[in-house]
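Bench log, entry 3. Co-assembly request; chain sequences pasted below exactly as received.
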Amino acid sequence: MARIASLAGINKERLYNYFGDKRRLFETVLIEELEKLAISLGVNAPGLENIGEYTGCIFDYHAEHPQLVRLLLWEGLAEGPAVNEAARTAHYQRTVAMFAEAQRDGTLNDDLDPAKLVFLLIGLAAWWFAVPQLSRMVTGSDGSASTERSLRRACVVSAAQHLASRHP
Amino acid sequence: MARIASLAGINKERLYNYFGDKRRLFETVLIEELEKLAISLGVNAPGLENIGEYTGCIFDYHAEHPQLVRLLLWEGLAEGPAVNEAARTAHYQRTVAMFAEAQRDGTLNDDLDPAKLVFLLIGLAAWWFAVPQLSRMVTGSDGSASTERSLRRACVVSAAQHLASRHP
DNA sequence: TTAAATTCCAACGCTTTGGTTGGATAATAC
DNA sequence: GTATTATCCAACCAAAGCGTTGGAATTTAA
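Structure output for the full assembly:
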């Protein structure tokens, strides 16, 4: 908390006045970051008929905001309950419903259960940032170079298409 | 450290005698767990001509030993250098070479760069255990029921085939 | 049986961390 | 002007964590 306050250019007492305690600060930030991701997708992502680029947009968001994945991993490693679980579950269920609809009308292939497809696509986009040390060991590059980053993005786009595009 | 010693049924001082300090304990355990995964794959996993089942075996290992993913995530979240990076890099490079060979001889499709394919398949198998809270919110199940677990496995197997199987 | 290890236990020192408090200082409102 | 509010600063507290130490007890070796 002292370090956060210092980086924020305020002092510790302010943090506690604004957010109450560490847990609530974490919750506030995580919820806000998740909302920003959703907004960014609403603005930038195409429809599900272009599932590759849709997933590429998730990748882009994580590339520019690597904090979010760190927050999610931390939440998963911690013992306690998840932050705001009911609302987040509802949000994901709406996404799953969208995917199910797209499978029904033939926009996406229906090889995979829609919920599991959503989960896998999120993973596809986020995995690079979840284990950067592993990505470095496997690919031999740390992913900061812009060429490597766009290669990784292309690979995510292509993989998403393999998983979900119609293949008649 | 006190909790670890207690769970191990010994006392703290033993831990320090055996492993030196916390960092070296972490390194020792991570290296050992990675070796166990490699051994398990050597015993159980089929060749790359059955890439789905190969990835399914990675999934199985993680399902039975969820500690390993937690160690990897922790390593990634921490600031310091990765554990034993040179040896691990060499190991992954050998795996990548195997995949490249399988792409060359037509066992696997060559749509994706082999290193990136290896990385994605690892993610495919590990992602379910990396963010259990997310998997719960998206799928509505916590994955402990054996039916849900085998559905997830089947989904990983199928996805791996989509990504890497030959599709003439 | 005696000597040398190994292990256990409890306490200790030191640092980090989450969180609070008391009062000085600045900004804002009336 | 004064009164109120917000901010800063520094110190403080209590708990937890890493690592050590000084024996006591137990096992092993000679």
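Chain B touches chain A through 47 residues (CB under 8 Å). Chain B has a mean pLDDT of 96.
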